[in-house]
Amino acid sequence: MDPMGAKKRRSKRPNLLSHTRPQNLQPPPPLSSRAARNVIRKHHNLQKQLSKAVMTKNVSLAISLQSQIDAAGGLSTYQHASIWGQSTTRGGDSSKVLMEWLTPLLKGNLAHVTTQSHKKLRLLEVGALSVENVCSRSGFFDVERIDLHSQHADILEQDFMKRPIPEKELLHEEGFDLVSLSLVVNYVANAKERGDMLRRVGSFMRLRHDIQRIEEWRTGTIGGVLPALFLVLPAPCVLNSRYLDEETLERIVINEGYELVRKKLSKKLVYYLWRFKGDEESQRQSISRVELRPGGARNNFSIVMR
Fold this sequence. Notes:
Blueprint: H1 33-55, H2 59-71, H3 74-85, H4 95-117, E1 121-126, H5 134-137, E2 141-147, E3 156-157, H6 171-174, E4 178-182, H7 191-201, H8 214-218, E5 228-234, H9 235-239, H10 246-254, E6 258-265, E7 269-276
Parallel strand pairs: 1-2, 1-4, 2-3, 4-5
Antiparallel strand pairs: 5-7, 6-7
Helix pairs in contact: 1-2, 1-3
């Protein structure tokens, strides 16, 4: 996305919502918790229908669904509902869970790490909504925040799938110790693109042998956790999908060179912390969509790896 580029004329066939973010010039009013949930639920339902219509080339239905999304306020309204729903005043900041996991490790090692390297740990937050979440205020990280439609000057407007991948010899400077995909993968339009996103994360990880912090990583604690991926999904994506369960999700992420460190399941969200060990492309396996749990009440969320 080039925010400085000329405004293009809308084509008859709508773009996938994962590739569009309309501008929001006036800050909308606060929402109640219930109203925020309703906006998010309605938007996700319409997005799923739109994605299916685009994939099946049903142009008239796609145009109708895009009109409904636009009439409801589009991405700006959805994002405002997400920001309000994840407000720290409501306990909705998913990075709170991340820091509950990491703080005991980082507190004991932070002084040695920063003294030796003169730098904080590097965190890439994809789909960032706020600069005031718990991980940003922790003091442990230099945080780089990106989002398709930034609503803050300190959030870079950028598509993660188009972000330049650092050269291997520059990973020690341009790579990250932690990448956060909190409620991001579920927003991607289709199963293959979700898999592509998960696969791409490893290209931004700086492994321990890439940086000058050898001793503290050897001695345990942090080295048993970082570099890592923090992944958050709506609970129904994993707990009530026809095509994805916990076992399959673990197989997908392990296939990309990770091992599970921590997880937390709640009624609304599932949280995972995955340590990146380094992937061997030749050992990757294709993982297709297979029905695991039949039933009319299931959703169709899935992730496939090619």
